Amino acid sequence: MRKLKSKFVLSLLGLGLIFTSCSNEDTAELTEQQPQAAISQDVLDKISGHVLNANFVERTSFELPNGETQEGFMIEGDIFMSETQVEGLDDVRENDITTEQYRTNNLVSQPRTLTVTGWTGGGGFALTQNMRTGLQFAINNYNRLNLNINFVLSFNTNIDADIVVFRQPNNSGAGGSAGFPSGGDPNRFVQIFTGLDNADPNVNEHVTGHEIGHSIGFRHTDFFSRQSCGQNVNEGDGGVGAVHIPGTPTGFDPTSIMLACFSFGTDGEFNANDITAMEFLY
Predict the structure, then answer these.
(1) Contact, 93 vs 238, CB < 8 A?
(2) Residue 27 and residue 6: Cα distance in Å, rounded?
(3) What is the reported pTM?
(4) 192 has which bridge partners?
(5) Per-residue pLDDT of the chain (282 residues; tens, 9 = 90+)
(6) d(CA 19, CA 111)
């Protein structure tokens, strides 16, 4: 996750976007990333042209459980994209985007069974028990739906699984991060931050479910306003592959699992609109 204010607005940072659902008492809010001078205007234009908010971009790197390091950009608090991925973005600007459920231009090829590793190795990367329980809950939620993709979860050290969920010991934020699909494959690496070590399994369920949502192609529900974070950031006609999903309502949806911010009171469950969106796409 990007920097969190002490006020505690929780921001869901996927490898590029962090998830946070806000309440007045316990919300961890994302601050605008600085300095942006280190990021070229071309990169910022690519990001905003893909309907991603270029006001929340930061160069970042993170360590994987196998000791490798990934470098790129964290966008909107919990969405990670490598420099190569950013360079490959198309300009998909849309005018006055205010509707509710959105996906990226890239999805996971289907039908397909996706393998998911809940990391159990050393070095501080192993999921805590609450994280493991939350991940199991999140996978169960997806598998209950009538989708053309399903998930097989194992707790091990298989770095080659389709999706690898691990604890990031070098980030103390209350959230996580993930990326978007590429080439028909899901984003592989999902980080869960140490601020959730002792959080209720339902909170971990929400965070892992949210980040897996990014990994299969879902945008933040309120990317057009970040209202869940107590913000009013309207991207207007600049954005990231934000394709409205038919059958979902317009306006702010306060209980969607894909909101930009979350509270510690979340139950981690999909709402009806989340389910409609997922069943439409998969």
Answers:
(1) yes
(2) 9
(3) 0.79
(4) 167, 176
(5) 232 332 334 545 433 333 333 322 233 333 333 344 478 888 887 777 665 766 678 888 889 999 899 888 888 778 888 787 777 765 544 444 444 455 556 789 999 999 999 999 999 999 999 999 999 999 999 999 989 999 999 999 999 999 999 999 999 999 999 998 888 999 999 999 999 999 999 999 999 999 999 999 888 887 677 788 887 764 433 333 345 566 676 677 889 999 989 999 999 999 998 998 889 889
(6) 27
